[in-house]
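Q: Got a minute? One more chain.
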Amino acid sequence: MSRDALVVGINTYDRLKCLNAPAADAEAIAQILQQYGEFQVTRLPAVKDKENQTIRIGKQTKVSLTQLERAIVQLFKPDGKPPDTALLYFSGHGLRKNIGIQEGFLATSEVNPDAGNWGLSLQWLRRLLQESEVRQQIVILDCCYSGEVLNFAEADPGDRGKGRDRCFIAASRDFEVAFEEINSQHSVLTAALLKGLEPKQDRWVSNYTLVDLLNQQHHPFPQRPIFANSGEAINLTRKWNSSVVNSTVKISAICPYKGLSYFDCTEADANLFYGRTALTDELLEKVRSGNFLAVLGASGSGKSSVVRAGLLYQLKLGRRLSSSDTWQLKIFRPGINPLQNLALAFVESDLSDIERASQLAKAEELIAKGAVGLGQLITAAQTQRVVLVVDQFEEAFTQCQDITKRQQFFECVLGALQRDDNKLCLIITMRADFFGKCLEQEYGGLAKKIQEHLVTVTPMNREELETAIIKPAEYMNLAVELELVSQMIADVENSPGSLPLLQYTLTELWQQRTEERLTLTMYSKLGGVRGTLQTRATQVYESLSLEEQQATKRIFLELTQLGEGTEDTRRQVVQRDLVSSQHSEALINKIIQRLADEKLVVTSTLSNQIAVVDVAHEALIRHWLLLRKWIEESRDILRQQRKIEAAAIEWRDRRRVKDYLFQGKRLREVVDFQKQQTENLKLSDLAIEFIQASIRQRRNNRFQSIAFFLIIPLGLSVSVGIVIEKQIRINQFWQTVDAARGKEDSDARIQALEKLTQAGESLVKKDFSGANLSSANLSSANLSDANLRGAHLRGAHLSSAFLNGVNLICANLSDAINLTPEQVKSAFNWEEAKYDEDFRAKLGLPPEPAK
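A: Always. Here it is, folded:
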């Protein structure tokens, strides 16, 4: 591997102040590159040391612009084959010209700005680097104001992501001078470089480890180096007295692939994340130069992974962008309530519950003020920059059904970008097929903003796919057959959204490995990339009992969001909402755990400790044929169910105002739907309550209408009289129940409740705290979310009664008839209720202590 370096140190100037350190700096850098880096070093200016018969940097010798230009051309664009690695080190004066167009220059000895002679133009250097075929390029500038001289937008060739590795380092920011160290002949930057380049172990010092050391340096001078790295690590120096230590860690118990999960912003995941170096470089450049970035691609193209394990992890390390390790990184998903989730992103995770609640309340108060409030949160952050990532941005359309909330969310985050200090950087990841949704309304200029700052995640090319397959295996000392790699690449190349299938198949191959080797034979047995996932998912489903299969089908249907002009996508669901009278909490929890163990679903917990479930990846929705069949068979029914659920949520959010209830034909259709629905598509308790409230309102309206026409005695039928009489009796029963509220004993209340239950009336959310309902026949009663705190239910008939969300603290359920553990466990505080000893055992509760 050929490695060339041009080391320049200019002390002597005609019209600028002469310097002392550059020649010594350059010579020291040249020697360490020769000794430890195997670089062929060219010195400028070069003089012969007669005593040692060697070439060194001349301390008094001048360097002309022509000499410097020719030397740099010979380094980066030589006649003949270019080197694999080229390093340019410059120490001397740097100049900045700001007449019409801002330009940076490296000052040669004869510069005379008054006469228009500024030295070597960095714009010229940029063009040269663009045309250079050198794959690894390093530019280090040690001069005053070098942050401005380097001017990354100017010096960086701007074609990151094209297979080149680059490292740019400058001694100071644009407003700082560069100092010499006290009691040293070297400048501050070069002294740090020399310390960092001298290897301490038999392993390479790279541009990344060098930057780590620069970040850790502390000195008394008001000077901070800046840098920008892109591409893979560039090896610089190492000791050569023994073989290189193999730093690969063999941990065969850890799978090097992610299955259907994304790679996250952790060291463990980042160490296994390969194949997206070019894209990561592009994202870093966008973040460095702007404050908004939209990352769009097909589902399964790796958007979340490249943003989390690529971009965010590199920002957290601080190796590629100066000071990015001091930035605050916040990431969240919009979900059903995007503004609330945005507020949660600003709550610290390591606080006590009380402190978190207080912080959340303050954050929500500010977010409620829109862009102004979010701007105040950004301003208050004690950091140079806040990077706010909205992952899976399409959830603002698929999960947030409230158009007003959606509009407020978009205006809030986009409005907060209108700052002069560039402190906020907003990044979104979104499925490309949802861009059309952004065009449906103005949404604060969202669509235009995305178009202006768009990075598209395209399928990996062959080289990237090969890296993604082989490198993680090498990290874990696994062997991969070359024939397997070729076949897998052929199966997924140019296929958008194939990465989850690739990772899942590799995970299965790892689990089926023999002698720490992944083989083509096993790949064929698994059914290839597309067959592996659906085969495994079907195997898991078929291994379940009939009852478990029915519940599993319902779970996956609930976890699917039907597309409206787009592909179907995932839908986050609260885990307890999957519990029904037929599918107990214990059964649902058992199945969810099994599916999570098989990497088919993902479980997580919201800030209020509510468990939620997601399908592991949309690849499952797209490629599992059995699930596709279920969805297509149920699509129309699912749409109607989701519309009812959405209407029920809106009714609840609008404080249960009757104006939001269903009426007329719509109510008749919903009642028919409820009667015909299959168990797999059971409505939620809230939707059932909503329908019952709509029916009750219809009855009241009919009663009022009939009562009005009673003044006209003729034409009334006997059936109308029966309806009126029934409604009058129901109203009287409710009056009896209301009159007994707060009383412990009331036989009239028990009789009225039994009649109401027989009439199909709902008891949802009713307050029976402390009431004596002993021996009451409440079979099939819907008591969801009712308050039974301290109520007496000894001997009560509770067969098929709905107890979802009921408060049972201190309630007495001893000797209750036909009560099941599943019913009880769907309630709140069920452990705090009183039961007879046999039933306590069924619930898994210990015997009550002897009195």
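A: The mean pLDDT is 84.
Q: Perfect, thanks.
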